[in-house]
Amino acid sequence: MPDLTVKLSVQIPGGPTVQGGSTVPVASYQTLEWTLPPNASGTAKIDVDFTVDDKEAINLLLIQSTLYSNPNEDAIITYTIKDKITDLPFEEPLFLLGSKLIEAIAQPTQVTFKNLYKWTDGKDDTLNKNTAKVTVLVGRAAPPPPKTETPEAAEPAEATTPPAAAVAG
């Protein structure tokens, strides 16, 4: 499996631009996409299960949407990472890189996305405007090579003096 290339560029208007990149070795990857339209009760949700294989730790996680919650208003889109994060407003794309970081912060086994917008007016343009299209990219690292056990060296035998040769007479 080829490595994934990650390029990052952050520009502050009137300030610096920071650029970086990395090559991420992966054994496998998944790209998952869903559409999450609102419903009349504001309880639309999708549960996404990740098959976590102990041999292939997640080392890249990218979650993005076409619709985000505004930090100054009530949340529209939230996400929950099972046993780690509960109903956090989805305000910006989420990008995590590095298996140890992902494991420490939020090793995902299940992510739930909710669309809390209550669609009641029956207008298709409002429905389309408040439908989230969610994309998840998961990269999994190749398992480390098995550790080879080095056999312990046997203790050397104590040195002995060979018996003197018998002299025949």
Distance between the termini: 80 Å
Please, what is the average pLDDT?
82
Number of strands: 10
Strand adjacency order, main sheet? 3-10-5-8
The coarse silhouette is: elongated
Query: What's the tally of helices?
Result: 2
Low-confidence stretches: none
Helix-strand category: mainly beta
| SSE series | EEEEEEEEHEHE
What percentage of amino acids are in beta strands? 35-45%
For the report, how would you describe the main beta sheet? 4 strands, antiparallel
Estimate percent helicity.
under 10%
Note the main attributes of this structure.
169 residues, mainly beta, 4-stranded antiparallel sheet, 2 helices, 10 strands, 40% strand, elongated
Give a brief rundown of this model:
The protein is mainly beta.
Could you explain the architecture of this structure?
The protein contains two helices and ten strands; from the N terminus they run E-E-E-E-E-E-E-E-H-E-H-E. The protein is elongated, with a radius of gyration of 28 Å. By secondary structure, it is mostly beta strands. The strands form three sheets. Strands 3-10-5-8 form a four-stranded antiparallel β-sheet, covered by helices on one side. It starts with a strand and ends in a 29-residue tail after the last strand. The model has no long low-confidence stretch (mean pLDDT about 80).
What is the strand and helix layout of this fold?
Blueprint lengths: L3 E8 L5 E8 L3 E9 L7 E6 L8 E8 L11 E5 L3 E5 L4 E4 L1 H8 L3 E6 L8 H6 L2 E9 L29
